[in-house]
Design goal:
Length: 450
């Protein structure tokens, strides 16, 4: 792996926790020493765009090369050099500016790269998914979009607040869904029948996407049309969001403080009202009708300013607020301040990289926004211990729950106690990361990664 910045560090943490051998190249000796002190990894000091540095790493023994430095140029050049050393190594490049559309590259160059990952694109896609599901704070899609796992915050008006899962099962209101997990007070709970859903809980619900309306009704969530979005920040994420949302016939106002950037944005975004100013200015927000805004998104490069502007917008009447945050340590703290949606471009990009490098039994995987759990989609092998046994009789490890079964490309099934998994089925598990080793044993796989 090249680069030990925010994306690289997150990947290192995740891969080391699952017992994989990693070699990290970086030009900051202090960072490498810190990583070596905390993780069992190999390090090489130098530039990943230098052939001699790469030749010191025994690349031929690697399965994959991930270029995740902060420089697009370094990432692209390093992948090209790695390809000259070994064409069998899969290569992933994190890019922001140079490669906005890989289809524009010549085939000779494009064939070198197995995947391009753009943090801004991934963060914008994450927010767009959220805005398409009323009230959601997290949306994960599986089985070609047929199964969704959605995170919602419970309020006092929810139909399920104050009820146990057993009570919900008896009245039949949640028959078409699975409440897979509860995030409460910094803890992740895989609930059982006697667990009560409380106001302020963030619940993760698995259901067939075609049953979205029924799921919203079961939870007491009333869909409200998304008509007006205000975005603060026109670089990267903000620009892409504005373009995507305006294409959905949503009224978009984009606030940008730099005059030159405003002119460029106005020329590029014809259906977006571009305003020069600062969204931490109460007067500007009031003048631009913040009280009528459905969603306010702080999307500048300054995360503190994003949080401040989002809090101010909510106080002045915006229905929902969102903030782009880069520091991983902030992710669990900021929702407590009153931010409805928190997005980390780095984790979004790293999660996309992890989904790419997985192979074998695992076909897709998402991390929850608090990074405490994963939702895994995988194919069940003939030797797996759960094959042929009704779900009620299986000893599924504490911290894991089966939320969907897909067979022969048919519609997904939300499992019940009598559900029997067969070899070749695709299944979706919601699992606390601490329970991953035990789940691996149940599935009879040696590892969830390469």
């Amino acid at each position: 792996m090249a680069g030990a910045g925010s994306v690289g560090r997150y990947l290192i943490q995740r891969l080391v926790s699952e017992n994989h051998d990693i070699l990290v190249i970086d030009n900051n000796q202090t960072v490498l020493e810190e990583l070596s002190a905390n993780y069992d990894i190999q390090t090489v000091w130098g530039s990943a765009s230098d052939l001699k540095t790469l030749q010191l790493t025994e690349l031929q023994k690697s399965d994959i090369f991930i270029a995740a430095t902060s420089s697009d140029e370094t990432n692209l050049i390093s992948c090209l050099l790695v390809d000259s050393i070994s064409q069998s190594i899969r290569k992933v490049a994190r890019v922001r500016e140079i490669v906005t559309n890989p289809s524009g590259l010549s085939k000779r160059i494009a064939d070198v790269f197995d995947e391009f990952i753009n943090p801004d694109y991934e963060a914008a896609a994450f927010i767009t998914r959220l805005l398409n599901v009323p009230g959601a704070v997290e949306v994960m899609e599986f089985a070609g979009g047929r199964v969704w796992v959605v995170g919602w915050l419970l309020n006092a008006d929810s139909k399920v607040t104050g009820k146990t899962l057993r009570e919900l099962a008896v009245d039949g209101s949640t028959e078409q869904l699975v409440i897979a997990a509860i995030a409460r007070d910094g803890q992740l709970i895989i609930p059982r029948g006697d667990d009560t859903l409380c106001k302020g809980d963030e619940i993760y619900v698995a259901f067939r996407s075609k049953h979205l309306a029924q799921t919203l009704d079961a939870l007491g969530i009333k869909p409200r049309p998304l008509r007006h979005v205000m975005i603060f920040g026109g670089d990267g994420i903000g620009r892409r969001l504005a373009k995507e949302l305006s294409a959905m016939d949503i009224k978009v106002k984009l606030i940008e403080s730099d005059d030159t950037s405003c002119q460029a944005l106005a020329s590029d975004l014809h259906d977006v009202l571009v305003l020069r100013g600062d969204a931490t200015d109460q007067k500007l927000l009031r003048e631009e009708g913040i009280a009528d805004v459905d969603v306010f998104i702080g999307a500048t490069a300054d995360e503190e300013k994003n949080v401040l502007a989002a809090l101010l917008a909510k106080r002045l009447g915006a229905r929902t607020n969102a903030a782009i945050v880069t520091k991983k340590s902030y992710l669990s703290l900021i929702p407590e301040l009153g931010i409805d949606i928190v997005v980390s471009p780095q984790i979004a990009a790293a999660s996309k990289i992890l989904r790419f490098v997985r192979k074998g039994t695992v076909s897709s995987a998402f991390s929850t926004r608090d990074d405490m759990a994963e939702v895994l989609e995988m194919v069940i092998s003939e030797g797996a211990k759960l094959v042929g046994t009704p779900l009620r009789d299986l000893k599924v490890p504490a911290g894991a729950i089966l939320v969907a079964v897909i067979r022969d490309e048919e519609d997904a099934t939300i499992p019940k106690g009598n559900t029997v998994v067969q070899a070749g089925d695709r299944v979706i598990f919601f699992v606390n990361r601490k329970a991953l080793p035990k789940l691996q044993k149940l599935l009879d796989v040696k590892g969830f990664l390469f």
